[in-house]
Amino acid sequence: MADRKEINILVTNDDGIHAEGIQVLKRALARIGKVHVVAPDRPRSASGHSITLHKPLRLSSVNLPDGSQGYSTSGTPSDCVTLGVFDVVREKVDLVVSGINRGPNLGWDLTYSGTVSAAMEGAILGIPSIAVSVTSYEDDTNFDYAAEFTVYL
After folding, report:
1. Is the pLDDT reported for residue 43 higher than 60?
2. Fewest Cβ atoms closer than 10 Å to its Cβ: which of 3, 72, 123, 133?
3. Do residues 129 and 143 touch, judged by C-beta distance below 8 A?
């Protein structure tokens, strides 16, 4: 088994780089591996499995609330995974985790979900991938339980 800090985890979402859910998820996953964050520069909910083709795709360095460096992009959640795997991490990515999404991704939602599509993009690239959501839209949503379950999983 690889040393925990050798595990490269790519984290993204569809709620944007500044969303609370991705920050909580990053902190939790940092206990089990090296976390790389690449997320949209703004919310991209319901973007489905779209990719950017006919306009410039921009990638910018961002200082995250914990003082670490992440990357935001003008693209979709699927773009984030591709950019993360091929341009940001530059090492083998062992796991893609998308979320934590505010609001459920159930039933038909899976068809439109940018959160789920990012995980699907990771799977297409041959990387074990999961999407994580909570069923609340409330401003005071507690993401800690979902983050802890993600680490456990």
Report:
1. yes
2. 3
3. no
